[in-house]
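User: Can you predict the 3D structure for this chain?
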Amino acid sequence: MISLCKPTLTGFFLVLFSLSATISWSQEKGEFSMTPKKKEFPVDKVKEAIWPMLTSIRDNADDSAFASLTKQMYTLQLEYGNQKSELLNSLATIIKESEAEVYASKVGGVISIKRKKVDPNTYDEVGEMPHMGGCDDMPDEEQKACRTQKLLMNIYSDMKYPAEARKMGHEGMVVVRFIVDQMGAVTFPEIVRSVPGGCDDEVIRVVNNLKFVPGKMDGKPVKVVYHLPVKFKLE
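Assistant: Here is the predicted structure, written as structure tokens:
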């Protein structure tokens, strides 16, 4: 999981990719900390799994097939004005199971796993994932870190904590699912987990402003499914 924390006077938000770790910002210590989670999701004929022990089956466990997850380690350095912070051992995770969609709906410590029909022309894993441009002439690992950093910066620089949500004290995680098409445009954004007070609308607004370099399969641009969890937290 990659996460970004934007400190403000009255609150901050975290942008998280997948669910393999949680990275949080401490204003008191002036640093990030990361708490890793389990790396397997039950996806086949399994309705629910205990959070964060995702290998524990809770309901209808007649088939214990698990989707494997690929983890990639990044070291990122992000700059906030005059303050520099390092994100060490950050994780980017790709869910390889194409027939299952994980809705990150943590309710009472439970994550629901739902099967979903997949457009045969849309992929959730490709040779080259959609990314922000401008990091081409770099070694592979540096390129991955650069692309991730650019995406994070595009998101956090545009995101605003909704006034109504702040006033009412609303916190939580919004999860948005969308498709990056062959031209790199965001299409069909939909909220799969909601937070009241205007948080859903703010996430949709920011996502619609993103412009990707399209994902590629066998060298050809293709449509790619993208999940973006955004955590809103007041301080």
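The two ends are 22 Å apart (CA to CA). Helices lie at 140-158, 163-168, 199-209.
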